[in-house]
Design a protein that fits this description.
Length: 327
């Protein structure tokens, strides 16, 4: 993702002098870290304040606001499933929401502050050091990888790595732009329907991050948005204010989703990984069952790498030919 910045800097010409790649790599690295720092400098205080507010939510009051719909649902379940007479939706929701809106979650997160900061410093220094040289000497990684394989596979490996670099660069840049656009639209929409600024930004941030996970992410974002929106407005009347607010929140997410499908994805990276939607969905389910949320986040990049290498080395198999024909 930093390579376009390096290319831009090295194309500058002052008389007969061109900036060295080392300067371009340094500028790219500093730019990336400034963007990251600015983003988290703004977002972390908002998220922490929202977490503190959610930790003070009265779960009993929240569940009581939904007492009538819960009672109707319990009546429906008991009518058709007599064996579930002992099951209480109200108790179930109270137990689960108590764990969600728990003040200990925040304290546990920062319980090892010293260790966390030390590990963070080491990680930032290591990532910056490695990234600088990969940007400065763009063939360094390729050459190191080629040494691991016999010379007869050099051409195939080079072609595979070139394809992977192009696909993943387009994918990650598209993901960043798309997530930011989703966050912005959701935040503006939620503010329009009456959600206060801090809460709208946090919900928008969650929706933008979860949108990285195709299909599953947007649905999870809607659920999280509704829960946070309701939890921060328990003082409102359920039938005349909370219920319409839930409808407005869902409407904001639906409109954003339509804009994303119609505008963002075609313009940004709609075919960046060149895979069928059913393939993507199955890959995400498998990755989620193996490695949870992290697996879902890494599923598409990992699948892209596997498909490219499969096309280079196993293209005689019909299933590989079918799955990689668009690459």
């Amino acid at each position: 993702m930093g390579k376009p910045i390096v290319d831009l800097i090295t194309r500058i010409k002052i008389k007969s002098w061109h900036p060295p790649k080392a300067l371009g790599a340094a500028v790219a690295l500093v730019t990336i870290w400034i963007l990251f720092y600015s983003f988290f400098r703004i977002m972390i205080p908002l998220v922490v304040n929202q977490a503190n507010e959610l930790s003070e939510v009265n779960v009993t009051q929240m569940v009581n606001n939904f007492s009538q719909p819960i009672a109707d649902f319990e009546g429906f379940v008991r009518e058709y499933l007599p064996a579930s007479n002992d099951f209480s939706v109200k108790d179930f929701l109270s137990d689960k929401l108590t764990h969600v809106f728990n003040a200990s979650m925040l304290s546990n997160l920062f319980s090892s502050t010293a260790s966390f900061l030390m590990n963070l410093f080491i990680a930032l220094f290591s990532i910056s050091f490695i990234t600088f040289f990969f940007l400065k000497e763009e063939d360094l990684f390729f050459d190191g990888l080629l040494m691991l394989f016999p010379e007869k596979y050099e051409q195939q490996i080079s072609h595979a790595m070139s394809s992977i670099t192009q696909l993943l660069r387009r994918y990650f840049i598209g993901i960043v732009i798309q997530s930011f656009c989703i966050m912005t639209l959701d935040t503006l929409g939620l503010m329009i329907v009456g959600i206060k600024f801090n809460t709208a930004v946090v919900i928008g941030l969650i929706a933008g991050i979860l949108n990285v996970i195709p299909y599953v992410g947007p649905l999870t974002g809607i659920i999280m948005g509704v829960i946070i929106g309701v939890a921060t407005n328990l003082n409102l009347d359920f039938s005349t204010q909370i219920l319409p607010m839930i409808g407005y929140i869902i409407l904001v997410f639906v409109i954003t989703r339509v804009i994303d499908d119609v505008l963002f994805q075609p313009l940004i990276y709609s075919s960046s990984v060149n895979a069928h939607p059913l393939e993507i969905f199955i890959v995400i389910l498998i990755a989620g069952s193996i490695a949870g949320i992290l697996g879902m986040l890494l599923a598409i990049p990992a699948y892209t790498v596997i498909r490219v290498f499969a096309k280079e080395f196993f293209n005689k198999f019909r299933v590989v030919e079918k799955l990689t024909r668009k690459i």
